[in-house]
Write a structure and sequence with these properties.
Elements lengths: L3 H5 L5 H7 L6 H35 L5 H37 L19 E6 L12 H8 L4 H8 L9 H20 L3 E2 L5 E2 L1 H6 L12 E4 L2 E5 L4 H6 L5 E3 L5 E10 L18 E11 L4 H18 L4 E5 L11 E9 L4 E10 L3 H6 L2 E3 L5 E3 L1 E9 H11 L7 E2 L5 H4 L3 E2 L2
Parallel strand pairs: 2-7, 6-12
Antiparallel strand pairs: 1-9, 3-5, 4-5, 7-8, 8-14, 9-10, 10-11, 11-14, 12-13, 15-16
Helix pairs in contact: 3-4, 5-12, 7-12
């Protein structure tokens, strides 16, 4: 979260920056909370200091001293004890209020981002590959999958309701192959360390990366007896929090982690959007990339991370473009985000397949991920994450960009060693 003093520093220009993402910083409330907390701390410190002086005076008075003076000192000691207790209680209450306030404030967007609040305001950075020119009316991935017999949405609905999917036969094999290809690419070529992590995490972990308290309505929550647990919306959550409350040696950075996990999202507020097919599901799988880096290098590391996600797209031969998101369209914890958008012939448009974000020190402050240099300098790490890639949306792109006039689908060459087949046929 933010340092309140930094938010109130005019040099930070926090009000303007947060305004670009549609957030109004309540400066008056923040100043009141900070002043009240500091006042409580000061009163407690002053009372404790006086209490020590009184205690020394009581000892000095001794049994042979003036009984009246000693009684007065003892009474003052009791009074000071109450003042300290009251100040500490007020401090705890105001500190909790201040923390709740700060947890609700999003990250400051970079001034390098364009203005705007929707995907229409994004700015294209570059494009790679030519969208396939099909000499037949293209189908979307649902029609393709059903004709091939690899996608069964009605049975998924029977099992769990809408926004779930069932893949079978070569469809399931293709899904598994995509995940294996992505993990091998990122671990063997890009140097990421693979982890197997829990998909159920606690409230503290969700808070560390910014999912709580802001997005509680978007999360699936469960519990056993008195344990409160959340299903992860992305492996970013456990991977980043592996180092929560730790101090990392600066010379060991950057750390590069990856994991293939299921992801769970309620998609609250998005009903009516992409309700058909695999684009927006309650449960999907994803290969996630996380980098924990020196704060001064975070923007350079973002370009590195972006290149790794792009390499996955290029290795699969999928036409895509990279866009820079508008300040009002980036995630709560992000200060800068690139989206990779893949071309979908069935929709005749580019659609997001990966987001790659620089969070600066925002998540590290919330999670308590610190750094220490050899010269003794201390600070907070910077964290970054990106989809590298979501398996379901990658499968969608393969089906749509690889579709042929005879109803078959050509499989990317990079996946053939993993699938054992080069095409899907009706």
């Amino acid at each position: 979260m933010h340092d309140p003093r930094v938010l109130l520093d005019p040099a930070t220009d926090a009000v303007r920056k947060l305004g670009r993402r549609g957030f109004t910083l309540d400066v008056a409330s923040l100043e009141k909370l900070l002043a009240g907390r500091n006042s409580a701390i000061q009163r407690g410190d002053e009372a404790r200091a006086e209490s020590k002086r009184v205690a020394t005076a009581v000892k000095g008075a001794g049994r042979e001293g003036d009984p009246q003076e000693r009684e007065t000192l003892v009474a003052r000691a009791r009074e000071l004890k109450g003042i300290v207790a009251a100040a500490e209680e007020e401090h705890r209450e105001l500190e909790a209020e201040l923390q709740d306030f700060l947890l609700s404030v999003p990250n400051l967007p970079s001034d390098d981002l364009p203005d705007g609040a929707s995907d229409e305001d994004a700015v294209q950075v570059r494009a790679w590959g030519a969208p396939p020119q099909l000499d037949f009316p293209p189908l979307d991935h649902v029609d393709i999958g059903e004709k091939l017999g690899i996608l069964d949405l009605p049975r998924a609905t029977k099992l769990a309701g809408p926004r779930f999917a069932v893949l079978r036969g070569k469809g399931a094999a293709l899904e598994r192959a995509i995940a294996r290809y992505l993990l091998d690419l990122h671990t063997e070529r890009h140097g990421y360390l693979e982890w197997s992590v829990p998909t159920l995490v606690n409230r503290v972990t969700m808070t560390g990366t910014g999912q709580l308290p802001k997005f509680e309505q978007d999360l699936f929550k469960t519990g056993v007896v008195d344990r409160e647990l959340y299903l992860i919306p992305t492996a970013e959550v456990p991977l980043t929090n592996l180092h929560a409350k730790e101090t990392l040696a600066a010379e060991d950075l950057p750390l590069a982690y990856t994991a293939h996990t299921p992801c769970f999202r309620s998609e609250a507020g998005s009903y009516g959007r992409d309700t058909r097919g695999l684009i927006r599901l309650h449960e999907f799988s994803k290969v996630e990339l996380v980098r924990i880096v020196d704060a001064e290098r975070s923007r350079d590391e973002l370009e590195v991370l972006l290149s790794h996600a792009e390499a996955a797209m290029q290795g699969l031969g999928l036409a895509y473009r990279v866009v820079k998101l508008a300040a009002g369209d980036i995630g709560f914890s992000a200060e800068f985000t690139y989206d990779i958008e893949v071309w979908l012939p069935g929709q005749q448009k580019y659609r997001e397949i990966s987001s790659v974000s620089d969070f600066g020190t925002f998540q590290a402050r919330r999670a308590g991920i610190r750094t220490k240099a050899k010269d003794g300098r201390r600070g907070f790490a910077a964290t970054l994450n990106g989809s590298g890639l979501p398996v379901g949306r990658t499968l969608v792109a393969i089906l749509e960009q690889g579709q042929q006039a005879d109803g078959s689908v050509r499989i990317p060459e990079a996946l053939v060693p993993y699938t054992g087949f080069a095409e899907l046929t009706p």
